[in-house]
Each structure stands twice: as structure tokens, then as C-alpha cells.
Amino acid sequence: MLEIIVSGVAGVTTGAGIAYFWTKNVAKNSFAHIELEVKAKAKAIENEAELLLKAAHVKIKENEIEQEHDFQKRVAKVDERNRDLILQTKALTAQEENLVHSQELVFQKEAHLETLERKKQKEITAAVDKMQNVASLTKEEAKVYILKKVEEQSRAEVAGIVRKYEQEAKDEGKRKANYILAQATTRYAGEFAGERLINLVNLPSDEHKGRIIGKEGRNIKTLEMLLGVDIVIDETPGVILVSSFNLYRRAIATRVIEILVEDGRIHPGRIEEVHEKVQADFEEKTYEEGENILIDLGLFPMHEELVRLLGRMKYRASYGQNALAHTLEVAKLARVMAAEMGGDEKLALRAGLLHDIGKALTQDLGGSHVDIGADLCRRHGEHPTVINAIYAHHGLEEPDSVESAAVCAADKLSAARPGARREVLESFTKRVKEVEDIALSKDDVTQAYAINAGREIRVFVNAQKMSDNESVLLSKEIAKEIQEKVQYPGEIKVNVIRETRATSYAK
After folding, report:
1. pLDDT tens sequence across 403-420
2. What count of other Cβ atoms lies within 10 Å of the Cβ of residue 19?
3. What are the φ and ψ backbone dihedral angles of 202, each rounded to 5 degrees?
4. Which of 148, 262, 268, 308 could form a cystine bridge with 222, CB 3.0-4.6 A?
5. Could you tell me which residues are beta bridge partners of residue 460?
6. What's the pTM?
């Protein structure tokens, strides 16, 4: 039993020794591995530090080179500045020498003048003494006489010099004016096209003529009453004529008929519907037209009412000349002239563009386009030069600036070109407008359209406020006033139209 215990203890002791030696070897191997890793990391850190050090040396070298370049540049600038200062000093020295020389010359001339003055006084004194002895004049009387003669002679010489320079100034001014006009007209070569009183509407076939006329002429009557134009349907194949002195109404009427022809549905209800849509479209279109003009000319900002009226001038004519084309021509000519005369080009352009803006409203409001335009521009805060140009281009004020004068000259250039305007057409449109204004001035009149080349006027009245008998009296009253106030060939037919409509809806 004791032997067994002893052998067991010996076995345990042997196992413990083996385990101790095995553990010691494993730990030794592990520490060797860690030591290698630490040495490798230290080596890597050392290499990285060397690289950073080299990069720092390179950066320092680059900074030194850059600072050297900056220093060289500054030195060069200082040298250049020193050279400039030396040159300026030399120039100042030369100027001082010239000034000293000029002063010496002035002193010499003053001394010479003093010598001449003393000599003149001696001669005058001698002459006075001589006249006193010969003509029995006192010394004062002789002196006054001589001075008067000298003054008369000097005045004659001065007058001759003034006339000479005045003539030279006139000749030079005329040459300069001709040069400016020549520059303006050659640098702006604008085209012009005279406005007519009719528009042509092309039809797909002659069958559409019958559809436009409608049953018993119902459609064409509605068109003429609603649009305020003459619609001429004759034997000319494939076209009808839309006639009116008012370009805006004529353009709307033309577009309405074109849409109706394209759509194919032509009846009074559809005509009214299309007319309302086209009117709204034209209001937007006129604003876009004005906006595009301002964008092209670079004249923003401008009040939206002026922008809209500017676009509407496309549908206005004066003496057969399109108002918008005339306005653009005046604006561009005025800009060129102002530039030649040293004025503000942009202000001249703006004044030229707005000088006839009142014409966009004369067919609706009547009166002078000058007063209407000036009032509009004043109300919307336009520059005083613009307002002066509006008055000055019709001689109601004197131009107060180069820009106003340029607008006046440009307006004359644009209007005076051969063929640009037609007096006969303008007198006709004025007469027709007078007839419309007489009708519109009456109470309870809602609309009035002159048609048939001014030989007929259609007057629409408020049916709620005027009876049939009163409409008859109104037609006679209008005819009498036209006869008294308007000069016209032949006769004018007055139609007073009283229409009652009843509308209700089934729901």
C-alpha cells in the first residue's frame, strides 16, 4: 500500500515538472514573437518619421524659393517705381524750367506793354496839346474827342472779329449737325411699311363664304356688329376682306374669322365665345410685345401699363405709318444722335420710345396724344427729360437737354422720309374717328363702330335704359350733329341698334 502511494506521488511530481517546462517553452516562444512585432513597428515608425522629415525639408525649401521669388518681384517693382519717380522728377523739372521761361517771357511782354502804354500816353498828350492849340479846345475836350474816335475805331474792329467768328461758329455748327444726321441715318437703316385699311383672310374653299354669311345673313351681321368692322365677300375666289380704320379691331376680327374657319362651327353663339377669347389673348399678346421690345433695348424696369401700351402701338397708325415702327425708329436714331453729341444714350433711347406713347390711347380716349402721353409718363415716374421730349417734339416746349433735342430731330427724320406718311389716309381716319366720338358722347350708348369706309355708323345702346322711340330720336340727333361738325363727301348712314337678350339656365 505504501509503495502504491509512493509511486503515485512520484507520478504526480513527474507530470508537474513536465507541465512546467512545457509552459516555460511556450511563453518564451510567445515573447519572442511579440518582440519581433515591436521591432518591426518601431522600424516602420522610424521610416515614417524619416519620410516626414524629408517632406518638411522639401516644403521649407519650396517656401524659401517662393519667398525668394516674391522678394525679387518686390525688388523689381521698387526699381520700376524708382524709375517712374525719376522720370516724373525729370518731367517736373522740365515743366518748372518751361514755367520759368514762360514767366520771363510774360515779364518781358509786360515791360514792353508798359513801354507802349507810356508811348501812347505821350502821343495822346502831344495830340491833345496840338488840338488845343489848333482847334481852340480845352485839354479835357481834346482828350474826350480822341478817346471817342479811338473807341469807335476799336468797336468797328471788334464787330468785324465777332461777325467773323459768329459765321465760323454757324458754319461749324451746320457741319456738325449734318455729320450727326448723316451718322444717325447711315447707322440706322430701318425699313418701313405703310399700313393698309384692309386685311385678307384666306379660305379653304368658297363654300366657307356661305357659312360665314349664314342663314339670312345671320352670321355676317353678328360678326360685323360684334367686331366693329366691314366684312367684304365678293367674287374673288378663296378670300374675304376685313376692312376698318382701327388696326386693333381689324386684327382681332381677322383672328376671330381665322379661328372660326379652322374650327368649322360658325354660328352667333360660337362667334361671341371666340371673340371673347381672342380679346383676352390680344391683351396678353400686347403686353408680351412691349416686354420683348424692352428686353431687346435693355430698358427695364418700366411700369406695366406703359409696357402694355407700348405693345398696343403695333395696332396704331399715324398718317399711314405704323406707330410702333415709327417709335422704334425714333428711339434708335435718337440714341445715335445723343451719343454723337455726348448725351445719355439710354435716356435718349427711352425718351424716343415713349415720345408717342399717348397714341396708344387716342382712339379710345380722344384728345391730344401729347397731353395723354405726358400725363401717363408723369404718373408712372418717368424721367423729366422723357416728359420734356414728349412736349418738345410737337413744339409745345423748348428742348431742355441733348436727349430731348435728339428725339425732336429723330422724329422729324422718321416722319419726313419720302413715302413714310400719307396725308389723305390720316385725314380719312380722323374724320371716321370724329364720327365715332360723336356717337359715343351720347348717353346710354355702349358701342359705336364706323364701317363701310366711313359711310355708315352702327350705334349700340343700352336696351334697359332706352326705348325704341328714344332710339329713333337718338339716330336723328347723331345724324344732325355729324352734319354740323364733320366735313365729308356724300352721306353717312346712322344705325342705332337696341337689342334685348334674356338668358336663363336649366339645372
Report:
1. 888 888 888 877 655 444
2. 10
3. -80, 140
4. 268
5. 447, 497
6. 0.47
